[in-house]
Design brief:
It is built from eleven helices and six strands. With 272 residues, it is of the alpha+beta class. Among the domains are: 86 residues, no CATH class; 97 residues, Chitinase A, domain 3. Strand 5 and strand 6 form a beta hairpin. Helix 1 packs across helix 3 and helix 1 packs across helix 4. The radius of gyration is 29 Å and the shape is elongated. The two termini are 44 Å apart.
Length: 272
């Protein structure tokens, strides 16, 4: 139970750190305490944030027993922290580094929310970013088969058999080392250029429908012989289906620009 309680403290901290903007009721400063541990108070505000991170709902929506259990867990966490401080763990380099990085993470998240709250993306900004994202997306999908072998010499022998008219799928079933596609005659289904290793993807893009590579293609998996089966155009997602994600991208870019301005105005000395 002790270990489980400690884990809950860590997991809840992560959940709180990654949470979306809390509602107004959760941000109100509440100064009364829910417990005192060896003279150190645990505020109701801290307890409420902890509960929301663990349970995903306000403390008021939990039963009295559930609230009591979570409070006990928080108290155990405080006791562990106090014992760690007493043992000098906060003086360790690793501990200090983690605590400092946690501070930076929490403050950056708070700063991001504070900066963005009055700079909500306009419809024009969303449409502009959507068009930019669509333009950067791959618009072609490929369907190909491949035969994977261990050596270049083995791949050349496969190519020689294909040139003599042996069916590609037949050779894939008997010779390919790729367990995932061998049973399907080497069929890799539909994929975009970005989903494949560059030498493989470039080779596919250079083929015409029905052609196979005349020289072996090497990747980290081995040597490939590839046949292009077909291509098709990819329909982009609708604006409404990705609007929320586009808004996140716009917000991130705005905050990035803000940090760039801070960097320009700062006096930074590097000693790395």
């Amino acid at each position: 139970m002790f270990i489980r309680s400690a884990l809950l403290i860590v997991l809840s901290a992560a959940a709180i750190g990654c949470a979306q903007k809390p509602d107004a009721s959760s941000t109100a400063a509440i100064v009364d305490n829910v417990a005192t541990v060896n003279g150190k108070p645990i505020s109701r505000n801290t307890f409420n944030y902890y509960v929301r991170g663990v349970a995903g709902k306000p403390a008021t929506e939990l039963t009295e027993e559930q609230r009591a259990t979570l409070l006990d867990n928080l108290i155990r966490g405080e006791l562990v922290a106090q014992a760690a401080e007493k043992d000098g763990l906060t003086a360790r380099d690793e501990t200090r580094a983690v605590m400092e990085l946690s501070r930076l993470t929490v403050l950056q998240q708070a700063a991001t929310q504070n900066y963005i709250k009055d700079r909500a993306a306009t419809e024009a900004e969303l449409q502009s970013e959507y068009q930019a994202q669509i333009a950067a997306m791959p618009n072609t999908e490929y369907r190909a088969r491949h035969i994977l072998v261990a050596t270049e010499d083995a791949a050349n022998k496969i190519i020689a058999q294909l040139q003599r008219g042996t069916a590609f799928a037949q050779l894939a079933r008997s010779e390919s080392l790729d367990e995932g596609s061998r049973g399907n005659g080497g069929d890799l289904d539909w994929f975009t250029h970005e989903r494949m290793a560059e030498p493989f993807a470039d080779a596919v893009a250079s083929l015409k429908k029905g052609e196979f590579t005349r020289t072996p293609v090497q990747t980290s998996y081995g040597w490939h012989v590839i046949r292009l089966e077909d291509t098709r155009q990819v329909a982009p997602p609708t604006f409404e289906s990705v609007k929320e994600r586009v808004a996140q991208i716009v917000d991130a870019k705005k905050f990035q620009a803000y940090t760039e301005e801070l960097l320009k105005a700062a006096k930074v000395e590097k000693s790395l």
